[in-house]
Structures are given as C-alpha cells and as structure tokens.
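Quick one: structure tokens for this chain, please?
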Amino acid sequence: MAARITDLIARKRDGGELSSAEIAAMVAPDVPDYQLSAFLMAVVLRGLSDDETRGLLDAMVASGQRVSWPWPVADKHSTGGVGDSTTLVLAPLLAACGVLVAKMSGRGLGHTGGTLDKLEAIPGMRVSLSLAGMRRQVEQVGVAVCGQTPELAPTDGRLYALRDATGTVYSLPLIAASIMSKKVAAGASRLLLDVKVGEGALLPDPDAARRLAGLMVGLGRDHDIDTRALLSNMSEPLGAAVGDALEVAEAVATLRGHGPADITQLCVHQATVLAGDEAVVRRALDSGAAYERYQRWVAAQGGDPEAPLPQAPLVVEVPAPRSGVVQRCHARSIGEQVMRLGAGRATKEDLVDHAVGVIVHRKRGDRVDAGEPLATVHARGEADPDAVAACFEIDDAPAEREPLLLGDVDA
C-alpha cells in the first residue's frame, strides 16, 4: 500500500490525474499524515480536475454518516468575514417564514469570526447537539444551529487540520470539497452559499471567489441539493460590531427592526433566495415573528435570550486624527485588531474572549471631524486606540459606498 500511495503522490506532483478510487485510497484513514500532507501540497501546486474534486468530495462524505431529513431543510454557508453575524438573523427569520433550518457551523480562525463562538456568547447556549436532538429541535422550533458532529465527514476534519498546519489551505478544489462535504453529509435540501470578496475575505480576488462559488454550486447540484451562490462585499466590516457579544447584540437589534442597513439588506436578500418571497420575509421581520423565533431557538438550546451579554470592563473611543471623508475602513485590519484583543484565535485550540471587540462608527463615504469617534474599543486590559485608528483611511476627496451584493453565480 505504501508504494502505491507514493505512486499516487508522484503522479499528482507531476500533473497527472487520479481516479475516484485512487482519491479514496489516498485519503483513507490508514494513510500516514506525512504522505497525506505531501498529497495536499501537490494538489495546491497542480490543482484537481472537476472529476477529481468530485471524487474527493464523495470520499469525504463516505467517511462518515449522511443525514436524511423527513422534510426539506435549508442551510446557508458563508466563506467567512469580519462582522458577519448573518446566521443569527437569517436562521430565525427563515423559520418564521416557514422554512426549516438545520445548520452546522464552525468556529472563527484568524481574523474572521465564527458562528459557534458568537452563539456561545449567549449565557447558557449549547452548540453541541446530537443528530437526534437536532432533528427533534428542527421539528419543534423550526431551527437548530450547532457544531459539526464527529460522525459527519470525519476525513474532512483530518484534512483540514493538516492543511492548516502545512500551508495548504488556499486551494479552490480543497476549499470547495471541504465545505460541500459537510453540506452533503448534513442532508440540506436547499443551500445558499455566500462567498465573500474583498480584503477581509478568505479569497480577496473576485475571479477566484467566483470560481469557488461556481465549483461549489456544481458539487451541490451533483448531489441533488438546490444550491445557489452569491458574492458579497467584504472590503469593510459587515455592520458595525466586530466581536462575539457585540455581534449578538447587533443581530438582536436587526431582528427587532433597528439593525445596520447592510446586515438587514443582506439577510433579507438571503432569506428571499431561500424562502422565495420577499414580502413574506419582510413581514416576518417587521412583525416581530423573526425575533420571537430567535427567542424560542435560543431557549431550546439552553440559552437565555433575555440575559445580559458579556461586557468588557474597558470601553475606549477612537478619535479621528483629522477631518475629512473616510475612504476605507479596512476589514482585515479591524479583524486583526479584534483578534489581538482576544476575540479571535490563531489556532483551533485557543480560547476566545466573548466580551471584547470593536464597534465601527464610520465607513467609506462618511464625513468625520477631527476628534469625533471612528470606533469604540471594548477591551479586557489595555486598549490601543492608535492601532484601531490606523485601520481607517481619511482624505478630503468624496467617496461613494461600494455595493454590498456583487452578483449571483451559477455552476
């Protein structure tokens, strides 16, 4: 077996193609990490064909259980960004529209936040559910969001850990197969992929983001999932809040009708794609039905939707160093500052501080006078207002807001 695996690695290293059976053998549990790491590097350098990518996806799905739901369920996946709390709004909003939601989410890594970390900022909230418990909650409440269970696509978990440790994360086929293996295994009937574009995104390049979106749509439809994809702008943070508890509070404000315009716009658009009727979506949001469903959802997972969220002991305003017009609030830089405060993790094992973060008060196109607040830092210890101020570009020239929605993508 060792010689055969070596031959497969060499063939991929030299630009050759592997069959689905060979891909499955390559990622089998008995293949040592050092050989699998070599294969991953060969994939990063040489790529995978569409057939190879399908074979990798099928091998990942076949490595664990595959959930079958008695009713159609919807899911949404974001490729990650800064201030992206849309799941906390979208999940109960869809449930209030009569669309069942069963979603498995992840944790933040690097400068991007994770849905599970945000949910755990809610006192008592459990993000670990059994498949039976998840099914029961979807039936009773209409929505469940939890972490991935070890039974679903375990090969993906192994590959992801190796990619993170060997500098092989940024490969479109590997990213697509990783994301879609979990979605196929989790049994979604309808799936919306929100692929972020811009400096705060996993893929800043629009062409690469579009290729990834098209690849994932094709993989989803290969498995009979009604899969759609959209591109959205992540050049600046989404909303104003960056940090777990701060984003939860902002999501609640959005569900109660007074959240940031960009989060509201994106959530209404996403919900309309999955529910099919914008009037129904807006009625669920405006009537308070979506907020009521949020309360039921949180309570069903052990959380207290009325309990105070964690608060940082130090709150510091960041003044503008000069007057002018904000040309950019750099999403990645803001995310990195929030990570340094303790809200992010450099490795999957790091703990996060749910209370800390940054509230952004000015974005591109906003005028600001010297000394007015650009942002507010919520910190556990010492804050660095100058470092946060450096995330903003201010000039005298006018600047127009960039569009949030950048278009839909087909396979």
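The longest helix spans residues 206-222.
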